[in-house]
Design brief:
15 helices; seven-stranded parallel beta sheet; 372 residues; single chain; alpha/beta; six-stranded parallel beta sheet
């Protein structure tokens, strides 16, 4: 499908400028770059928050117009024109004052309105518990399109229980121009890249720290911010506080294997691949992962990934011959480049917006994204 003309797209997201302590920034960057390359006109609105202001690693993106705003009401008073004129307005999860932002988007936008939920299982669990501060049940059903990082049965639950008109998967993806194999020594046998999360810490303990204790001859690394000071790190585990996105490929390429561990809500829902999976695979780094339902729809165990349930499983994988390690890495890389690139996601988003526009205005042909 080839757009007749570029779409005017407005994103209201957690952060584009800073990847510090969040995975949203890299997701937005890869998707927006791909949309820009496909000819679309993009505006990104980001709440100016102090912790991101102090750690901005992309303050001036060249693939969109970036505007920082101070208060949620600024969306109504300063950006009414942008919201009203857009072909689609896409609000992300975890946006500060997200419920108020959603209501402003839904009452101001004239084109397609979409929620881009990068945290779907966490969002749904929070709504059901009554403690989600960025989305409520009544506004979840007010969007024309609910874009979910999670696929599988949860999509039907979102439609049936939250009242979403159209819940569709839009998984994370990778930009292969920024994530690719790099030459250099493999400095560590196993590494993990991710911000600290209390519910990810137990599997990290079992699948990385315990193997490190059992094998002091091997080298391990954990990179990411916000880890508590009271964690007992084995001597052969190196800590790196933060790896900016432009160094992710260097980091992955220095690992013999990388570890993926999954938040508890994501495991319960299944079908929630982390962007770490696609980024590592694109860099030619083989992956050891915990198990969750639906993982085999993205990678096949033993062929494109190694699933581990215990420290012993991890150590058995680390002892595989380099030829087998390379075979698994190459198979995963082929899979990602075929199915999980940012350009592939941008094309999927075009199709989903076209369908939503046709349903929103059944008597009119969509303003864009028609067959050429």
């Amino acid at each position: 499908m080839i757009p007749q003309r570029p779409l005017r797209l407005v994103f209201v997201g957690l952060s584009l400028t800073s990847s510090w302590g969040n995975g949203h920034a890299t997701t937005y960057r890869s998707l927006l770059r791909a949309l820009h390359a496909r000819g679309h006109d993009i505006t990104f609105l980001e709440r100016d928050m102090p912790w991101y202001a102090a750690n901005r690693d992309l303050p001036d993106p060249d693939f969109c117009r970036l505007h920082l705003y101070d208060h949620v009401e600024d969306l109504r008073t300063k950006f009414t024109g942008a919201l009203a004129d857009a072909d689609a307005v896409i609000l992300g999860s975890y946006v500060p004052d997200g419920i108020a932002a959603a209501r402003i988007v839904q009452t101001t936008a004239t084109g397609v309105t979409a929620l881009y939920d990068i945290d779907t299982p966490v969002t749904v669990a929070g709504i059901l518990a009554g403690d989600c501060d960025y989305l409520a049940r009544d506004v979840a059903g007010g969007f024309d399109l609910y874009l979910s990082f999670t696929s599988g049965p949860l999509l039907s639950f979102i439609e049936d229980e939250l009242g979403a008109a159209r819940a569709r998967a839009l998984h994370c993806a990778v930009d292969p121009q920024h994530y690719r194999p790099l030459d250099g020594p493999r400095r560590w046998d196993l590494g993990y890249l991710g911000t600290y999360s209390a519910d990810r810490q137990p599997p990290l303990e079992e699948l990385l720290l315990e193997p490190a204790r059992r094998r002091p001859d091997l080298r391990f690394v954990v990179a990411g911010p916000q880890y508590p000071d009271d964690i007992d790190w084995p001597e052969n585990v190196q800590r790196i506080d933060h790896v900016p996105p432009d160094r992710h490929a260097d980091f992955y390429s220095a690992l013999r294997w990388t570890l993926n561990v999954t938040r508890a809500d994501m495991i319960r829902s299944g079908y929630s691949p982390s962007v770490r999976l696609f980024e590592a695979a694109a860099c030619g780094t083989p992956i050891i992962s915990d198990h969750w339902e639906g993982l085999d729809e993205f990678f096949i165990d033993g062929q494109e990934i190694r699933i581990a349930r215990s420290a012993a499983d991890v150590l058995a994988t680390l002892d595989l011959a380099d030829a087998e390690r390379g075979r698994i890495a190459e198979a995963a890389r082929r899979r990602v480049l075929a199915q999980h690139t940012a350009d592939r996601r941008a094309a999927e988003l075009e199709e989903l917006l076209s369908e939503a526009a046709a349903e929103k205005n059944p008597s009119e042909r969509p303003r864009a994204l028609e067959e050429a």
